[in-house]
């Protein structure tokens, strides 16, 4: 008993939850009214009562959970793998078959959850019984384990042999049918709790996770004070009505549905299905003419436009026409500071100040005076986030003003008009001939080819740079 | 040591600098201690009361359910998704994977300490890295495609530059960046190769400068192992969400280290968290056999994805490109695809022969990759 409580860890908790759920299913299966019909099963010359066929199990699951055959086979299969149902004919094959193969419910005494984890002592007794009952009945791996156990728990070996003999004697007094059933049940239990080498170990839980009682953090005053502060902040936050938020999800998914290859397919074909990389070639980072879907996406949100190198380049061109390109340049330079190397921050902040913020700067950006003052103050002690406020100001300026106008501009409309709509690739005439799958240059190549200057630009995602890292033909 | 996160505060005293009053020591934490008239019990009571109030406030704006709003959307037919590639090569359980931005390469890590970079399209193994530790639970591809990050039982997360020189031993160039006091369970680069975000069994998350290995920010608030994190795809790019064994999902401000939102509705460990593509919501996968959907603007859980016939825990989730589908990997070896809006299960994907450890949709949404304890990865499309 003590061994079990000591072993209680995270995976004990996780597995016990699953066991309990499976046990509920098993109990429901045996319900006198809603459960399965049992029958007698003939095993050679013996008749085993209370058995069912694999077909029965699957049909019951289909009916109970309203699932298809494949899923019922899978769920039932798990019940067999975990030993709640065991096969009568081929006991070592813990597989559910969708036919007349006979199965039986495991007795709760031998449920894995009843005594978990299985003890070495019990396993030794089981192997001893097998050994005594029929010399040479132990399989090779069982013989190895038997001798290992003999060494390990040698001090209790007399007890092991005595128990084994006692249990064998008691079982001889049973009816043959009961004896066979008991042997089957016990064998099934050990096949799961001590699987043969190479067999799937269904109880493999992986790394131990902690249980509820070993917290990583001491619940002291600091912890509670932080939690209280967090709660207060959370109480003060603005919440939006559900009807508005949820409508947002519906709209978003509708808008992007045509762009979702798993749902709607993609043109000319999905490379993973057709082995043709045309879709990727047409949608490389930099292409002469982008696809229509891609250009449409720029109109979904400002972020979509900026995230696409071609979109960003087009937007820059538009801003140049409007004489407000410095906004985008400033924004990009701020991104570079935020996401770049720590060692370069001071230099970059200085450059940004010189180019964009200093009075009379070549590409002076128009920020409100409050933000400007705060930023100039912050520049005295430059850090990664010192440009955040200014950057946000310019970002929203572009988003609210330039971006909507760009979408209405001829520049964008022309882009949309000349965008490519790929033809769907007709399915291959010879479906068995697989296309050759071409490799592509690794992005890792870019490390050697690209200079440091370009490296930084790539990190910040500037449009129109060296496309060595981008295109994959 | 600035690189070392040390979170062992005893009652009112900082374990690192032993100060009892306000202290901004090397551990970067402000220690306050108990004020007059306060006890741990009174603080806990105040905390519990505030949490109750928070739940009430959250309920007030709940005027409609997601599946009701979704009634007008079309019913999805079963997906015609099949296994298109099987990546064989790992000698033990595959624990994690991540796609490269080029949409076809990916990195995977395994229980036996091996990290492999594949061109999943051709099935070519392009790079192999052998780490000195087992259980590499976290791996991530750098945005540039020139490096990968990996970590696990060594309590570290290292960045390995990818070289095309076949004679080079990549592991030799490995650079330790993150240092935790327990296993590293997840990692991701932020918008560039220069910063790394990690989460750990030590109950914290942390942001690191890759170049110097410096700890930029640490995130405290979980009370048990943190198992997963995901970066928000937002315009301002400043938040991320984490989930762990304390059943909580926390949203963090990367700049200040503050916990801005917290959700506690799962009944067991949260194994994975992932943002909805718009950044306005996220999904979680838990040992309680459910996946849940949390709306960040409404500040509450808005959907639970569960089915009677699904008995085993969910270990991983990811959205399809439009966010309409949620793929979830389970401990019963299957992947279920859920209709995010209607809450129904659309398809089941069979094929793996052991637990699913990770599912990830490719960057352009053309495929789903699943990593499993059966030593393989599968590409579905």
UniProtKB/TrEMBL annotation, chain A:
Transmembrane segments: none annotated. Keywords: Signal transduction inhibitor. SUPFAM superfamilies: Regulator of G-protein signaling, RGS (SSF48097), Transducin (heterotrimeric G protein), gamma chain (SSF48670), Winged helix' DNA-binding domain (SSF46785). Residues 301-416 form the RGS domain. GO terms for cellular component: cytoplasm; neuron projection; plasma membrane. One of its GO terms (molecular function) is GTPase activator activity. Residues 439-450, 464-473 have a biased composition (Polar residues). GO terms for biological process: G protein-coupled receptor signaling pathway; intracellular signal transduction; negative regulation of signal transduction; regulation of G protein-coupled receptor signaling pathway. The keyword Protein transport does not apply. It holds the Pfam family RGS. Residues 32-107 form the DEP domain. This is Regulator of G-protein signaling 11. The gene is RGS11.
Automatic annotation (TrEMBL), chain B:
It comes from Lates calcarifer (Barramundi). It comes from the Eukaryota. Residues 40-67 form a coiled coil. Belongs to the WD repeat G protein beta family. GO terms for biological process: signal transduction. PROSITE patterns: WD_REPEATS_1, WD_REPEATS_2, WD_REPEATS_REGION. WD repeats lie at residues 87-119, 177-218, 219-262, 263-304, 349-381. This is Guanine nucleotide binding protein (G protein), beta 5b. InterPro entries: G-protein_beta_1-5, WD40/YVTN_repeat-like_dom_sf, WD40_G-protein_beta-like, WD40_PAC1, WD40_repeat_CS, WD40_repeat_dom_sf, WD40_rpt. Keywords: Coiled coil, Repeat, Transducer, WD repeat. PANTHER family: GUANINE NUCLEOTIDE-BINDING PROTEIN BETA G PROTEIN BETA. It holds the Pfam family WD40_Gbeta. May interact with RGS9; this interaction stabilizes both proteins and increases RGS9 GTPase-activating protein (GAP) activity, hence accelerating the deactivation of D(2) dopamine receptor-mediated signaling.
